Amino acid sequence: MFVAQTFQKNLHETTLQGMGMNTQPFNSKARRSPIYSPRKTLSRFSFRSERPLKHHHASLDSESPLTNLCLKACRSFATATLSFSLITGTPTPAEAVTENQLIYLEAWRAVDRAFYDKTFNGNSWFRVREKTLKTVDMPTRQSAYEAIRDTLKLLDDPFTRFLGPEQYSALASGTRGSVTGVGLEVGFDASAGSDSSLLVVAPAPDGPADRAGIRPKDSILEIDGVATQGMTLYEAADRLQGDEGSEVELLVQPSGGGGGRIRYVPVTHGMCGAVSEAAGGAGRLGYVRLASFNSNTAAAAKDALRELKAGGAERYVLDLRNNGGGLFPAGVEVARLLINAGEIVLIADGDGVRDIYSADFSAVDDKSPVTVLVNRGTASAAEVLTGALQDNGRALVAGERTFGKGVIQTVVPLSDGSAVTVTVAEYQTPSGTSINKVGIQPDLPLETEVPSTPREFCQLVEGASAPRLFQ
């Protein structure tokens, strides 16, 4: 497989998705189902595309949190073979250590230096290493890899994990693919030469393509009626991005069945009439649903809020249910649309808070009442936004406890071409509350099923049986 990857600064979660990491939870809760109409060999898909958005940060440091936090994690391990006695604290001579043990020690040291939880999940990290070296045989490189994996399991962190040489090479050399606006990593099969068709490397978890049933190794034959044969990867990726708001249609040949036709709109909004007393009082209500955080989300949300405000909206509902996150900067930018001043999110590692993202006095509306709808499918960047609005007293949070995914990873290469991904920091709400594994508790639990389309939502809140959404 030869494909190419384009990386964007600070887009940590996109980068991690490109190497195969789960940056969004695999949530089994019901989501809006795509229109699905399988065909025998070929399937067409229509997507709502997105354009790239320039991200702006308000950090205490000029560097990104990932760059800022992983400096110590990315130090050279070149001296490991020369100073094993210093690493282990034992008089064992360097020549007595096998190459496989040295790989294990490199991985152990990467976690020791960079892991954000300095209690190491209640383990004595030094004793873990000593016990492993004394009791685990590592006659082969694969046995060393298994020892690394077993050691990392003790951290109880699914995002700190080992990458074999092939997995890491796919990321580091830029051969994993290009992540597109329709939620696909795509590439070409080099073994097929000039006859290769555009292949799906992987669909983004719970993205529009994933929900439509597109799977790895499916072939994309056409993009908007244009054959992909002869296209460069970057030309194909550009066509898959499309213009903002445009519909992208794909002709797909499944490798093992599946497929369908869907339309995907990342941001939807609508204006409701007077809110019933049952829902919390009178006044026109603007409804905004964010399905994910991508390069277009902040701009689209800004346009939606401006339109609703101009139309007379006196309060808003921001629907983040089943929003599994996406690009962290997009979540920060949306928060700045509703918070004019104050902290939005803290980035903390084992040494404490290392970075702070704040509002930049560019809010579209920082006065009107806001209710945020969340559930167990609300995660990552969506939780950052929810926590910022809740802690700043800017919004009432209604629904269920959120998923609880609030960590940042970096990748540390090892000398044999393998690597470990290490959780180096966590997101904290402005009050200093950790999101990870805890989630955000709603202010107002909801027992009534609330629709997720503007028209049906408005019908509910305008009626006498509406759930209470505002205090």
TrEMBL record:
<dbReference type="InterPro" id="IPR001478">
    <property type="entry name" value="PDZ"/>
</dbReference>
<keyword id="KW-0645">Protease</keyword>
<keyword id="KW-0378">Hydrolase</keyword>
<dbReference type="GO" id="GO:0008236">
    <property type="term" value="F:serine-type peptidase activity"/>
</dbReference>
<dbReference type="InterPro" id="IPR004447">
    <property type="entry name" value="Peptidase_S41A"/>
</dbReference>
<dbReference type="InterPro" id="IPR029045">
    <property type="entry name" value="ClpP/crotonase-like_dom_sf"/>
</dbReference>
<dbReference type="InterPro" id="IPR041489">
    <property type="entry name" value="PDZ_6"/>
</dbReference>
<keyword id="KW-0720">Serine protease</keyword>
<dbReference type="GO" id="GO:0006508">
    <property type="term" value="P:proteolysis"/>
</dbReference>
<dbReference type="Pfam" id="PF03572">
    <property type="entry name" value="Peptidase_S41"/>
</dbReference>
<protein>
    <submittedName>
        <fullName>Carboxyl-terminal processing protease</fullName>
    </submittedName>
</protein>
<dbReference type="InterPro" id="IPR036034">
    <property type="entry name" value="PDZ_sf"/>
</dbReference>
<dbReference type="Pfam" id="PF17820">
    <property type="entry name" value="PDZ_6"/>
</dbReference>
<dbReference type="GO" id="GO:0004175">
    <property type="term" value="F:endopeptidase activity"/>
</dbReference>
<dbReference type="InterPro" id="IPR005151">
    <property type="entry name" value="Tail-specific_protease"/>
</dbReference>
<feature type="domain" description="PDZ">
    <location>
        <begin position="168"/>
        <end position="241"/>
    </location>
</feature>
<comment type="similarity">
    <text>Belongs to the peptidase S41A family.</text>
</comment>
